[in-house]
């Protein structure tokens, strides 16, 4: 018989479900991995009920906070990673021969410059004569422009609001400027083509 955890109020299997859910946020898969027996639509419905349980939600919230604290996923950490994605030097990803370094040799910051790497095996010949001749790697980098935009928006660099002011930061005197403009244009040819003075 399952025991209730006095700290969380959850049964052992409910707690396992919550821990499994935090791995990939797939409630149905977490339900199965936690050892529940229902399958298909029944498993999906039961997982949704479990996820809506207030005690499960409270436990999930606490575990999220613990994970955030352990991984230092705060504003500073996000900005540091974003700054590296926007400004990091992609040359750090390659060796002196221009080959992509092994993934295990890349730092977390360097790896953040990559959106993905596809590896294709190449062969020559057919049937029994088919031989492996090498690998082709297709590298996709993160969008540096998107990273720069996001970083700039965080610091308010792309604000659409533009403020103008008059002398000394005071208000703009539109009436006075309009009168001065009218005086300048008085007597000038306002039709199309170059302006010319009218003879008196």
Please describe the structure with a list of short key phrases separated by commas or semicolons.
8 helices; mainly alpha; two-stranded antiparallel ribbon; 46% helix; 200 residues
Characterize the structure shown.
It is built from eight helices and two strands. With 200 residues, it is mainly alpha-helical. Residues 190-200 have low confidence and may be disordered.
Shape label: flat
Along the chain, the helix and strand elements come as HHHHHHEEHH
Largest beta-sheet characterization: 2 strands, antiparallel
Number of DSSP strands?
A: 2
How large, in whole angstroms, is the Cα Rg?
Answer: 32 Å
pLDDT average, as an integer?
78
Number of helices: 8
Which structural category do the helix and sheet elements fall into?
mainly alpha
Query: What percentage of the residues does DSSP assign to strands (E)?
Result: 5-15%
The strands making up the biggest β-sheet line up spatially as 1-2
Q: How far is the N terminus from the C terminus?
A: 110 Å
What is the share of helical residues?
Answer: 40-55%
Low-confidence stretches: 190-200
Which helices and strands appear, and what pairs or packs with what?
Elements: H1 12-24, H2 27-33, H3 40-52, H4 54-71, H5 75-87, H6 108-111, E1 114-124, E2 131-141, H7 144-154, H8 174-185
Antiparallel strand pairs: 1-2
Helix pairs in contact: 1-2, 1-4, 2-3, 5-7
């Amino acid at each position: 018989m399952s025991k209730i955890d006095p700290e969380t109020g959850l049964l052992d299997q409910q707690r396992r479900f919550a821990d499994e859910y935090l791995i990939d946020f797939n409630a149905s898969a977490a339900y199965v991995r936690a050892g529940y027996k229902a399958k298909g639509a029944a498993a999906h419905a039961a997982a949704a009920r479990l996820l809506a349980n207030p005690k499960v939600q409270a436990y999930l919230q606490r575990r999220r906070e613990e994970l955030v604290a352990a991984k230092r996923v705060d504003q500073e950490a996000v900005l540091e990673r974003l700054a590296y994605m926007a400004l990091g030097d992609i040359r750090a990803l390659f060796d002196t021969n221009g080959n992509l370094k092994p993934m295990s040799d890349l730092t977390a910051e360097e790896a953040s410059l990559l959106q993905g790497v596809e590896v294709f095996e190449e062969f020559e010949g057919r049937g029994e004569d088919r031989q492996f001749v090498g690998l082709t790697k297709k590298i996709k980098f993160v969008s540096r422009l998107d990273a720069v935009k996001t970083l700039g928006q965080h610091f308010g660099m792309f604000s659409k609001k533009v403020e103008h002011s008059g002398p000394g930061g005071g208000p703009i005197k539109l009436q006075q400027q309009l009168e001065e403009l009218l005086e300048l244009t008085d007597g000038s040819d306002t039709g199309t083509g170059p302006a010319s003075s009218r003879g008196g």
